[in-house]
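Follow-up to my earlier ticket, as requested here are the two runs.
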Amino acid sequence: GGANTYTFSGGSPIVSPTVNTSYSITGTSTAGCVSASPAISTITVNVLPLPTITVNSGSICSGNSFTMVPSGANTYTFQGGGAVVSPTTNISYTVIGTNTSGCVSNTFATSNVTVNATPIINIASGAICQGSSFTLNPNGANTYTYFGGGPIVSPTINTSYSITGTSTAGCAATGTTIANVTVNPNPTISVNSGSVCAGNSFTMVPSGANTYTFQGGSSIVSPTSNTTYTVTGTSIAGCVSASAICNITVSALPMVSAATNNMLLCTGESATLTASGAITFTWNPGGVGANIVVSPIVNTTYTVTGSGINGCTNTSTLIQSVDPCTEIGNLAPNLQNSLIQIYPNPFNNKITVLSNQTKQFIEVFNVFGSLIHSIISDSKKTEIDLNNLNSGIYFIRIGSVTKKIVKQD
């Protein structure tokens, strides 16, 4: 400085000495006057080596910062302007250093920064039935932290659970993820009990749920003895109830029987039909009551339905036989027409049996097949006194021959 133009002894204002060197400079004013003496510039060349620096590399989680820590110089200049950086993707930074003599490193040190993603946690909410457990099953990270319990929870009311996660790189998820667990109540069911008559079926009618499971597989059962059945119910949410009990009492059927006082009627005669074994009786055909009087003109089947004290019913069937009795008459002895003759028929007190056999075994039966009189005769003609019999139809058997006889008043 101090003149208008300058003359350098080295020929240029920029020099690169390798050893300590002095340079002279003269100056010329605007009027053309030259300085009386030159100015001297002494340059000292430091022989110390240039600084060699190193810097750390590393990784961060997304959203965090990284601090570069170089070494080997006195001061440092960082690409990007500072030692603390917050990259969003993997990146490399350069660093140069200056020693105490002001010498700058002739190579860069490189810091490689890896940016690891922050995990995003996903988890499904769900529902359980009261008394059951629910498994929290998150994904998106390597390890998880559960707030309010572990991965298996058993809430008694609707509950929300918070979960955070950490990736394999050690990055933690931002905030927490929520799983909502709904607790559905188990249904409370009831079912009818009752009684059936033996041989009949009973229908169980439960309530309180959406669907039902019956012991034995069906709501309609036909027990043969007093039986207890269990029923469970399932709600719309799929929750299962405790068992409800159905008690079924099986009542015995009455032992109904029917009888007639005359198994074989002549046309126009009447018979009394009698039922027993129950409390009330209904005849078909016929009427109501334990006893009815009938006068069928042909063989007729009568069915009686009896009701017991427990309300159960049973039936019995009876066939009332009817005969025109047209072949019966006062048969005079006539051995040419038959080997055995019986007369009179119908009779009042006595009948006569005429046979071609000198010895004969004679039996008299009522319409129920019961033997009521018997005699061994040594004569071809035998008179039998049946005065003690009531009027009605009887059967007389002589050897292997059976004939019908009618006693009248």
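Run two:
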Amino acid sequence: GGYYSSALPEHLRNLPLYRRGMSDEEKLELAKLYDERSRWACTPMGSPDSKGNLRLRGPAITERVRCCNVPKSMRRPRGHKRPTTSCTPGECGCGITFTVPIDDWSWDWQWPLYGTTRWLKSYDRRPAVESTNAEIRTNRFRFHRGCVRVKGETRTAILLAFMLAALNMAMTADWFGTDWLELMDAETPPLKLVRRSKATVAKHRRTEGPPG
């Protein structure tokens, strides 16, 4: 998913992939390795040009690593956040800029870099959105063509806000395993979260369309 300098250490070249069922702790531990590898990555110099060509620069130019072939980078303090490469004097990929045509980078390159903590946070946003779509369209409500019978973006947005508010109420009640009215009257929140069994999940309150 990225372009790296040849100075990339061997132990960071073939990292394991994320797999289904990993715990949050396991994901964060793996992300640390990808974050470490990202220091050797070439970074973009702005957006692609009018022809789709992408300009990249080596990691020593941005001083993410210290390389003997880039004197400016060697003046930066040594540390785990700015490792020193094993390059020998001469030409290397740490201090160069290069252009990649769209036919090459569009297939594999992605930013943020795959596996990093930044990528992980961005990736988790999509499952969250898809889960919300599934809840309002299938699991709890029946949001389909014809449900919204008002005209104009403002009116539609207001109506959708009421639908999402009702969805949050239903999801909160199911999560705590109690009725919403009981949650409203409770002086303190329930002490224990309730994860529903499959039988309970199958009994979601459903309507022919969103409430309202």
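The only thing I checked on run two: Residues 18 and 132 are 23 Å apart (CA to CA). Let me know what else you need.
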